[in-house]
């Protein structure tokens, strides 16, 4: 009986050590993914990476964007779950703001959350801003493009390692640019 208890304790200790080592490695892997995001851009992408806010009348955005994209980006609407083709996008590349084409996420940051919306465990540093949202009477963290102010989605703390973040994005607010474009 003592031997069995000793083996159980030894196994539990081993699991704790293994899990601690995993947690210690996680921030480095997320940091490396964030730091190396530009490797997912095509060689001659021609995108502006300037973060200076764009001031445009809403009428110009409305004329330029499809109706569902405009509604999400500038009226803070939400697309129905499971309707975005980006849910199944697996190629290496970057996800751009549909309005101003600022890179927001890379394919290395994407995962299948099972929610029906494209989801990411991290974002490109400095490209998204956040604010509190009380639209459904429960406080949530909304995020938007720092350049055009377009609403992208909501940030939750139920994502996978390494960050435990779930950036739940409306697919119609994004455009995918494959690295091999």
Structural summary, described in words:
This protein has 181 residues and is of the alpha+beta class. The protein has a single domain (36-178), classed as Peptide methionine sulfoxide reductase (Metal Binding Protein, Guanine Nucleotide Exchange Factor, Chain A), CATH 2.170.150.20. It has three helices and nine strands, in the order H-H-H-E-E-E-E-E-E-E-E-E. The chain has helices at residues 2-35, 58-64, 67-75; strands at residues 93-97, 103-106, 110-111, 119-120, 128-133, 140-145, 151-156, 166-169, 174-178. The strands form two sheets. The chain has a six-stranded antiparallel beta sheet with strand order 3-4-8-7-6-5. A three-stranded antiparallel beta sheet has the order 2-1-9, with no helix packed on it. A hairpin with a 5-residue loop joins strand 6 (140-145) and strand 7 (151-156). The longest helix has 34 residues, at 2-35. The chain is globular, with a radius of gyration of 20 Å. The N and C termini lie far apart (64 Å).
Q: Any chance you could write out the topology, listing elements then pairs?
A:
Layout: H1 2-35, H2 58-64, H3 67-75, E1 93-97, E2 103-106, E3 110-111, E4 119-120, E5 128-133, E6 140-145, E7 151-156, E8 166-169, E9 174-178
């Amino acid at each position: 009986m003592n031997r069995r208890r000793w083996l159980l304790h030894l196994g539990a200790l081993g699991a704790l050590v293994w899990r601690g080592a995993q947690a210690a490695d996680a921030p480095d892997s997320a940091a490396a993914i964030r730091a190396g995001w530009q490797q997912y851009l095509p060689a001659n992408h021609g995108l502006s990476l300037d973060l200076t806010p764009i001031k445009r009348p809403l009428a110009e955005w409305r004329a330029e964007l499809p109706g569902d994209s405009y509604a999400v980006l500038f009226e803070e609407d939400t697309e129905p779950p499971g309707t975005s083709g980006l849910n199944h996008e697996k190629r290496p590349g970057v996800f751009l703001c549909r309005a101003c084409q600022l890179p927001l996420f890379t394919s290395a940051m994407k995962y299948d959350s099972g929610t029906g919306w494209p989801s990411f465990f991290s974002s490109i540093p400095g490209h998204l801003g956040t604010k509190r949202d009380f639209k459904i009477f429960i406080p949530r963290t909304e995020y938007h493009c720092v350049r055009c102010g377009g609403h992208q989605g909501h940030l939750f703390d139920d994502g996978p390692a390494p960050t435990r973040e779930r950036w739940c994005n409306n697919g119609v607010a994004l455009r995918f640019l494959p690295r091999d474009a």
